[in-house]
Structure formats: C-alpha cells, structure tokens
Design goal:
Elements (H helix, E strand, L loop, with lengths): L1 E5 L6 H11 L5 E7 L12 E4 L6 H15 L3 E3 L4 H6 L1 H6 L3 E2 L5 H8 L1 H7 L10 E4 L2 H12 L5 E5 L9 E4 L4 H7 L4 E3 H11 L5 E5 L5 E9 L2 E10 L7 E4 L2 H14 L3 E10 L2 E8 L6 H5 L5 H11 L14 E2 L10
Parallel strand pairs: 1-2, 1-4, 2-3, 4-5, 8-9
Antiparallel strand pairs: 6-10, 7-8, 7-10, 11-12, 11-14, 12-13, 13-16, 14-15
Helix pairs in contact: 1-12
Length: 340
Amino acid sequence: MTRVWFNRTFSSIHAALALIRKGDTAQEYQLVVSSPNPQAIGLLAAHESASEPAGLIGLNYIEWCLDFCRDRKIDIFVPGKEASLVTSHNSEFRHIGTRVMSAASQETLHLLHNKARFYATTLSPNAPPPEFSVFERLENFDRAYASLRDRHSELCMKPSVSVYGIGFRRIIEDRSAFDLLMSGDMYRVNLHSLRDALAQAGQFRPMLLMEYLGGHEFSVDCVADRGVLVCAVARRKSLKAGGGQNIVVNDGIQVACADLVSQFGLNGNVNVQFREGKNGLRVLEINPRMSGGIAMASLGGPNLPYLGLVIFDRGRDAADVPPITTGLRVGEVTMAVTLQ
C-alpha cells in the first residue's frame, strides 16, 4: 500500500481526500493528514491523522517533515504548508524514499504567487493577462490611472501577492465613500478615498492597477503531468449571487490551459482562473494546488484529486479519464458533522 501524506493545507482537503478514497476502489492508497489543529476538518477524511507543531517554519519545518516521512514511512508527500521550500529540498526527501508531489519548481511557484511577474511573463494568446500597471506610491497610481482609464471604462486594483482576493477592489468614480459603506459592498472603493489612503500610506508593497473584467469568471481545475495537460474541468460562475456554477467545455479555455501548463511545466492538481472582459477571455491567476471547488468540478465526470495522484504515482497510462459532462449546474451545501 502506498502511503500519501498531506501536511497542513486548506480546509477543502476534506473533499479532496473523500474523492481520492472514492476513486481508490482497490484501496491502494493510505492517506495521512497532519495539522496543528486537532479539530481540523481534513483529519476526518484521512486513514491516519497526526499533529504538527504550531509555529514551526523554514528549515526547522523541513527537518520536521523529513523526520515525519522517515518515521511514518511516507511514499508520497503532497505539501501544502511551505510547499515551495519543500520542493527545493526534493532531493533530500527522495534520498529517504519519499517522492514530493510538487505543482512546479520552486522558482516557478514563486513566480506564480507574484501576479505582477506572472502577468509580465505569461504567454497565452487565447487568454492573455488583463492590461495592468504596477504602483507603489500615489504618484505611480495617478500616472497609471490616467493612462489605463483612457482605454477602459472601469479599473480595479489588488496586491501583487495575496490570497483569497484580499485587497481586491473595483474603483468607483460616481458613488461616494459613504454610499459604498452603507451599501455593504466590500469590494468597491471610491476613487477619492482610495487616493487619500494611498497618500497616507506613502510607500507600500507592489499593487496592480488593472482593467476591470465584468464578464463571467471561470475556475478551471486541471490535472497536469510534467507540462502536459491531461484534463481540465471548467466551472462558469454565475454573475448573480446564489446562481450556482455551470460545468462547461470551452475550446479557448482548454487551449489556454494547455499553453499555461506547458509554459510553466505544471504538474499534478492545479487551478487556473479566467474572466471575460470587453476584449475577450483573460487569465487572472494560476493556483498551484487543488481549488476549494474541486469537488464541484469533479461532478463533471473526472475524479480530479484521484487522477492527479494516480498520474503522479504511476503515469498517464494508468489513469482512465472519463469525458466531461457539460451543462451541469453545481453548488455546495453546508453539512453538520460530529468532530469527536
């Protein structure tokens, strides 16, 4: 039996592990999950759980991981926490008999997490990045805003390095800061109040000013094998809250995903985000991991977490990739569970 370890990662790991166990009808994989939180939901879906030391980072965490792999006889390590650092120590894990399932090289992981570098580097003719400019002071912002606003009716901003959409705002010119506050809209900001905030901040970390893309957003869960796209399931998100998501097959998205997987040498389970604008499809980001919605994507046919693991473990020939069922409208519901 092959022992597979998932260290501390996102809460969506519970759904991914449940899918792996569902696909693993021959019971070839023993799933091990660790977390510093003994109540972590992901532990419930594992065959075996373990505690991680809280606050351990850097090389000290790598040493702990190496000891964990030795002691627990781990065959495959799927890193969440410190993924890029674990990847850079791949040879040390290989030396003790553990294969690291990395989405990309350490250098590429760093690039993907920095959207300014990612946008400047990406070669994707079917879905190029949105037009953007980097700013770190109010003066840079003003110059970039004047230039981009000539070509786009609405602009937005976000940090160059961020997760969960933290810091993203649409920039509004025709509503006051008070109106936006009272509307409860957390993702819009008044231009004048934004400029005041930037002036008070002085110098700050790199931010992106971009064209706002007002069309449908697509979240695409992919399985890749060392730069080759094996499978991609796209979910089109509704423009209205509560409208669910639709499984779609879009030739432009498929080609764009294949191009991006090839360019960055992606491997295993990765997620690519796109959005439509006035000039067509644009790539927003690549998440070098499973998405939080991978269970919804897997309703379209392919069991994506299981396929990713099997292909990494035994190669593409060992995987049976079913066709994608399009037209499904999917969503998620909250369920109550007993934690102990």
